[in-house]
Amino acid sequence: MTFDTFLMVDWSGGNDRGPTPKKDAIWVCAARDGTVDEPVYLRNRQVAEEWITTFLATECAAGRRVLAGFDFAFGYPTGFGKILTGSDDPFAIWNWFADRVEDASDSNNRFDLAGQINALFPGVGPFWGNGLKRDIANLPRKGLNRAGHGLPEKRQAEEQATGAFPVWQLSGAGAVGSQVIMGLPVLSRLRKHFRDELKVWPFEALDQPIAIVEIWPSLIAKAVAATQPLERIKDAHQVWLLAQTLSRLDPEKLSEMLDVPVNLEGSIFGIDHVDMLTETALSTDTPPLRNDCFAMPQGAYWTPVEDALTHLKLHLTAVTGTETLPLTQAVGRFLAAPVTAKRAHPPAANAAVDGYGFAGPAPKGLQTMPLVAGRAVAGAPYPQAVPTGHAIRILTGANLPDGVDTVVLQEDVAAKPTEIAFHGPLKKGANARDAGEDMVAGQAILNVGRKLTPADLGTMAAVGVGDATVRQQLHVGILSTGDELREAGSKADDGQIYDANRPMLGALIADWGHAVVDLGRAPDDRSKLAQILDDGTARCDVILASGGASAGDEDHMSALLKDSGAFALWRIAMKPGRPLALGLWNQKPVFGLPGNPVAAMVCAMVFAAPALQLLAGGAWQTAQSFQIPAAFTKSKKAGRREYLRARVSDGKAEVFASEGSGRVSGLSWATGLIELGDEALTINHGDLVTFIPFSSFAL
Length: 699
Known about the structure:
The protein is an alpha/beta fold. 26% of the residues lie in helices and 25% in strands. The protein contains 17 helices and 38 strands. The strands form 10 sheets. Strands 1, 2, 3, 4, 5, 8 and 9 form a 7-stranded mixed beta sheet that branches. It has a 7-stranded mixed beta sheet with strand order 10-28-30-31-27-23-26, sandwiched between helices. Strand 30 and strand 31 form a beta hairpin. Helix 13 (501-511) runs parallel beside helix 16. The longest helix has 19 residues, at 597-615.
């Protein structure tokens, strides 16, 4: 069973959480083919329901199948439904709550409704945990005050899931009951909105575009704890990691997880596959690209640049393996596992200056303090405590001895062999660094996908990290096609041209930090080109070819990729450029660029640079651009994006004298590109335009 999109929802049972992202709120995150969007914070259930409905509708309209997970119970222990609705049909329970729950951004009736439900049952309960100051009839505040209601304390799923809380508890640490009461009405409305397009696991066969399942992120709690970046809220990271994990599963394993008997209580998706889910969540390996990863939606003809970039971002994933390297060999590589500080930095409180340490603060006026014998220096901590009212000679970087929290600059001190004098005031903690004020032990300091810089190596070394788990270097094959090509420096007649693309593209790829594999020149012979592709895919992770990317008689690259069954010819609404042939050959991605050198270089920078970074294991990035006054005039029609060769002179952007893509020398003249948007534009001298330096594409 296959799905294109995985949407995970961390639900909340409380009121509006405000505009600033918070924990214990609603977080959603989507993933496709192992590539994960950033988690989205939704401040209340009203906003969340609208966002989720729109998201599911958009995915369906794009022809994508969605598996959406919600982290609250889809049902109650057996017997609850019969008392409530006369049936154990879970959808009857959903509809019952949808008809009675009153939910505004600042208030709801969940506690009152729970008390009303309790009144239907014998004894006291089953719900408990009144979270309001006022008492509510039939709703006890403590679970021990319940008796005789006749229902099991937990569903089968909660009995199986270690640490799972029962659905009856409405408030207090770990309570999930409020999420259920406030979540089921939303599921009920989603079913009615999407009608036959939506099915629910494990109650129905999942044979429609949308499947919704019950999730419990704590199933992969070990993986969450091991991978959570310090700056990401736990709730956000849970949905991020679970979305990524499910999107990376082999379809057969996913089908196995979904293949369970109908259970009217509902169940937790993956409850029987915890080890496999945890292993996948912690794994740095990624699945191969799908055969249809380059397929645009049907009906697409002229593809806007932004749509093409978005498609690549959503459908490409890392294709390289992993290895562990010492820091001296890791620069320029992409992290395959988060880096965690082995110890704090600084490891102990220490002096920021040369001076004298004592217990602060020092009041205003002249201060005199006797000096203890000895001194504190970096690498040789002072072994004794400094008595109150005394000072010690201390040098920059030395650990603060016991009894010292403040340092006075030596330039501000009159020192004698046995005492010092200085003028206050001086605040407590002055000129001293706290232990761990930069980084603390166990802190995630660098995230997966980061391209390691020299500064990163210093950061890692400072906290005791001596090696890094990184992606192996991406090997990019460079291939030129066409009988008319000759090697630069050789003889060529008037009907032949020198191959400018291979040396140019090879240098670009090397500048981007990837390993270059020169695949030479391929003739206009389909069988020989196929042999070269076979050889190239055995040696490379991806191939960047130029020429033969259109649909003419001699465009053999397009024809071969089409015959392979994994091909898309994109007609990009841009100048220079237009045709991009993309496909898989022996499960390796092939980018077919235009043969014209100007168009080949522009398309490589705009499309290949971020795509190769994803394939190499990095995060998708957009080249940095700047707004600069124009030193030219131009009018352009709507409908396509244009890239002009440009350079900056006297703070203004000049453009090359000719826009013709045959003028290769313009690439040497330029230091970057002017990007003109898809809309119609009239540019006058001094108007701000978008300038992208060539160096920005070296992501």
